[in-house]
Design brief:
The complex is a heterodimer of chains A (about 375) and B (about 1050). Chain A has about 375 residues and is an alpha/beta fold. Chain A is built from ten helices and 19 strands. Chain B has eight domains: about 110 residues, Rossmann fold; about 150 residues, D-amino Acid Aminotransferase, Chain A, domain 1; about 60 residues, ATP-grasp fold, A domain (Dna Ligase, domain 1); about 150 residues, Carbamoyl-phosphate synthetase, large subunit oligomerisation domain (Carbamoyl Phosphate Synthetase, Chain A, domain 4), CATH 1.10.1030.10; about 120 residues, Rossmann fold, CATH 3.40.50; about 60 residues, Dna Ligase, domain 1, CATH 3.30.1490; about 120 residues, ATP-grasp fold, B domain (D-amino Acid Aminotransferase, Chain A, domain 1, 2-Layer Sandwich); about 100 residues, Methylglyoxal synthase-like domain (Rossmann fold, 3-Layer(aba) Sandwich). Chain B starts with 8 loop residues before the first strand and ends with a helix. The chains are: A alpha/beta (about 375), B alpha/beta (about 1050).
Amino acid sequence: MSFPCILALEDGSTFVGHGIGAKKVAIGEIVFNTSMSGYQEIITDPSYCKQIITFTHPHIGNTGINSEDNESDNIYAEGIVIRDYISKPSNYRSEENLDNFLARNNSIGIFGIDTRQLTIILREKGSLKACISPIDENNEESAISLAKSFDGLEGMDLAKEVTTKNLYSWNEGVWPDYKESKSKLHIVAYDYGIKKNILRLLSEHVGKVTVVNARSSFDEVLNMNPDGIFLSNGPGDPEPCDYAIENIKRALNENIPIFGICLGHQLLALAGGAKTEKMKFGHHGANHPVQSLKSKEVFITSQNHGFAVNEDSLPNNINISHISLFDQSIQGISFKDKPAFSFQGHPEASPGPQDIVSLFKQFKEMIDKNAKKK
Amino acid sequence: MPKRNDIKSVMIIGAGPIIIGQACEFDYSGAQACKALKEEGYRVILVNSNPATIMTDPLLADATYIEPIHWESVAKIIEKERPDALLPTMGGQTGLNTALSLAREGILKKYNVELIGASREAIDKAEDRQLFDQTMKKINLETPQSGIAHSMEDALEVQKEIGFPCIIRPSFTLGGSGGGVAYNIEEFKTICEKGLDLSPTNELLIDESLLGWKEYEMEVVRDKNDNCIIICSIENFDPMGVHTGDSITIAPAQTLTDKEFQIMRNASFKILREIGVETGGSNVQFAINPVDGRMVVIEMNPRVSRSSALASKATGFPIAKVAALLSIGYTLDELKNDITSGLTPASFEPSIDYIVTKIPKFAFEKFPQAEPRLSTQMKSVGEVMSIGSNFQESLQKAICSMEDDKCGLEKILDDSELINDKLGFELTFPGPERLFYIADAFRCGWSLEKIFDLTSIDPWFLRQIEDLVSEENAIEGSKLENLSKENFIRLKTKGFSDQRIANLLDESYEEVRSKRKSHNILPSYKRVDTCAAEFKTSTCYMYSTYEGICESKPTSKKKILVLGSGPNRIGQGIEFDYCCVHASLAMQEEGFESIMVNCNPETVSTDYDVSNRLYFEPITSEKILDIIDLEKPDGVIIQFGGQTPLKLSNDLENYGVNILGTEPDAIDRSEDRKRFQEIINKLDLLQPKNATVSSLKEALNKSDEIGFPIVVRPSYVLGGRAMELVNNKDELGIYISDAVQASNERPILLDHYLDNAIEVDVDVVSDGKEIVIGGILQHIEQAGIHSGDSACSLPPYSLSEEIIKKLELQSKKLAEELNVIGLMNVQFAIKDNEVFILEVNPRASRTVPFISKCIGNSLVKVAAKTMIGKSLKELGFSNKLPKNMFFVKEAVLPFDKFPNVDPILGPEMKSTGEVMGIGRNFGEAYGKAQKAANKVLRRKGKIFISVKEDDKKYLDSIVEKIISFGFEIIATKGTAKYIKKLGFDVQEINKVAEGRPHIVDELVNDQVCLVINTTQGRQSIKDSASIRQTALRKKILCTTTMFGADALVKALENKEENWEFSSLQEIN
């Protein structure tokens, strides 16, 4: 059952709606996502840690929740904002409704909001600090001050909060067959907030995966004899993750093949000597055109990032491989002198288009080529 | 990669006349393509037989040929124009088929014309069912279990494997024409027989039935670098079994998880690649088993389609324009997304933050003999689209847009019926009003599960309807003053119209509206921007909703509001969209901001770059007054959109809106019988004897005064709805008992029918001082055949100077009396050199675009400019026709879609579209018009003649010519006797009732090439129906009037190989 609820932004805007899920106060950075499908994948994506997601699609909850589409074992989104909530889903795979799922995972949603107006505010002012609260816990004023109390994502290392405590191995391919990997290659994946579909695609296209804590030392990883190292997506600002940057530098020195996605991409760039910056409202959607500078091919990609690699800071040994056709920002880099490349968007999709899933094969090819060199 | 320089000229083939399955969406696509290619500097050569289109405006192409879209005609145009390339993907199935024929006949090779947009192989692979199936197998995609048959034996063989029910579809037919679902062997045989006949390749595809599966469409665009994007996904409300053109559809898809959606997306790209659509837009249809998610591919169209028009309007992404630019070498990343003022490239996928609903519009009332059930053969004649913040709002707005006198989910169950039986039937066998029966089922307490069991409509949609019904139940019978502001807002958010709320509360619409405004519950307008507000847009493409902040930002410029014509229907089609677009353009030329309101996604008027501002809204009093409140226009134009905007004239006047042009009262004066008679008497003009009656008794009394035959009809209708010719009191009695009901108890009009009179349409433009004749069109078929179904000729082909002078004079008198500013149409009948006035319409008529094409001058623009005070002199209007040219308009009828309907012309309009034939004499023009209308005039064989007594006199001249052309004649007894008396050979044949072998046998045996058949009286019409139906089925040209027969003879005098082809630019 829904309850009266309020959404407050740091700029003083407030919206009144109905709450679903856990009756709690959510504070974080509010962003909008324009994907028209895949709300389950989105809210379970660890990269959304400390963020409140505004869905621009009018109806959310249509297909319910099923046990196959989670991108992690938790809901990481701090809260979600919806225009029209569908409490009775319709889909042959649906197992429960979104309301339940949010409640079970201690997350809150607010619906009955003019999400278009909210999106326009965010487009114009950039991502803002925000708070969702049941009305009986906060009034407008206190909700606004709670929103303002959020520290902001800049300078915030969240990877260490969402990473796995213990290492584990992964050997399962993609939905719906989940085929076991037959490859002999061994990939070590640094978990900064990794999505399951990345693991599935690594397993499907590259090899067996060992997932390690973000702070695992490079020596520990080296002892595992990896054929390649994967740097995962994740939430927050890449800059404070100095431990990760140090590890990546050493991996680069060892000439171990590296592939990074999203936060992993930013960390690789930082390790290579580039700088990153906070974007105005970031890229969050499933319709972003990204162009390969080499082939001129355009890929429609899934995107979810609020930080980006600064183009001017790129050292000479790093090439830009892909750019965004929305704002020309860097979408992919590759090292001229090292077996390392990375991508800002989400080739694993889930949700979103799978146009550039070929990057996983590219990683495999790079590993194969590297092995021959040795 | 920039555009190609090795191509200098491109030919575009249009879709021809509006028919069921191919409507004005191809005017939208063709017009976009012409504009885009012309802007890029290519010489554009356009062939389209439909004069009512925007695309055939001479400014849109460099050479515009209004000629038959047949490969023979197009070949001659190619020979003359020598285009470098041919773009076949803009003109629907007609465009593709013609291009294929040109390729097959070696024309393209001979003149070195390159097919761009889609290759011959790609078209074949997509269109040929067997090839398509193989292609899908190759890429591991499932298609329904199926088999191909080229004969009845094959078909039975295939059926054995597939079982019942199964779906039968003939190859290469329009809108799935001739297909159907068979549940038993008898039905199976009937459908197969018809299908084999209809398919140009005598090929049937027999499919496993997917009845009840969910149906989806994906609109895909691909460029030559293999960049593929999905513009829009569309989910059908009606599951498989109802043609997608007849389904209510929703965008974007609502009941797919991302995983399922991506499977469909990937499959769509795979299909385009494998079929080999190199560049342009395509649509792919899928079915999904709701139980386990099994997905099969239904079909793909390697061209822009009705769905791509819908997708373009739904998202703001101009598919046709982009497809045209891709065909000449651009890639998606090189093109800009216009709607965000080029902030984003065209190589992205639109994201939309609203829900779009399309509802088809049907015309079953026009064809009482046709079964009003929906199946795999498309039967709708038009559609509306609406945009809302949520599905419920979108759905209810769409219902209001339909102009079916429904303002919401109104109850349609008749309490006198057996409710459970009726509901069970209507839910199981979908008809055009299933949506309303679903609501009624909820009202009757049926469970969602039960409704789902019968309809297979996704519970997601059913729940939304259930909720709307429960909202209605909650307020029904309560009082307006008890409706809280909060509840009022909730109702408006869910899309309830003021009128619907008024009905539920038993209040007047005005009361509800004023209460709403007193609560300050006003619509806000949001923008369609392709990107869910991620980027700023300066494009003013808007829809209303009831939440949040208004983004409309009206300007302070001088502005004119143009009200569109709503959904296409029989009697009001593309002609009125043409008029509205021209009115909007004229206002811009005069320095006004033009604001368009319309709800038809197929049209050019709903292109966001045609007017300065576009509101995609229902044309209802509520929505229009809301827009007027916001925009405060200097004037409103209601003359050009047919009945749709005219219906609002009272509301607009009462609201103090400045209605431009002729005062609405003039319409009332010309439509109200009594007031009209006063005018006729005052001006000393003639009209057929007539009366207005409101009861059977009165009708029978008056009929003595008037004298039979009598034309009867309800008052205030367009397109001759429910109009009929009656010959005696019995027939009159039968009619009255049906029609009083059909006309909402409005009075019935009786007119004496002028036998064998010549009918003439005159269109006039007036600035209030000067009155100029736009054109005088002489009808081919006699008065009594609805003017919209009649062929006509400009200039008149057999009227004396004296008569023409009389027509001009009388028209001018009428225009003066009615104080016309703008357009007026008068219909005359001429009998024995006397001129009778049948009808006056002080507004744009159906013939206006046709005349505009003939005189090379837009009558509408001139008329629109007079409405803002310009004089005709200032505008320099000229009505001069090119010398020594004839222009013939021919109607195109949808009888092939309604096999049980008698294909006979009468006073009720049944045509869906029109074509134009241009010639150096009447015969050539008429012959071309016939060909363009797909009426095959064979040049040798037997001609069957059976005419009513009064018509026999006309045989004197006709028969002699027919014989001299080398035809043989067969005739029924009476007619044969008459012909023999004239001294000609004739073979006598039995009427059907006279025993076998009879005339239908002859027709079936392909012994006849032309049927001339006129009848009188209900019985005679009934007796001869099978002749006309068989002729239609066998594609034997059949004329049901003597004037038509005479015109055909004139056409036969001109050999087809001597036809000349000139572009409009050369003619004018």
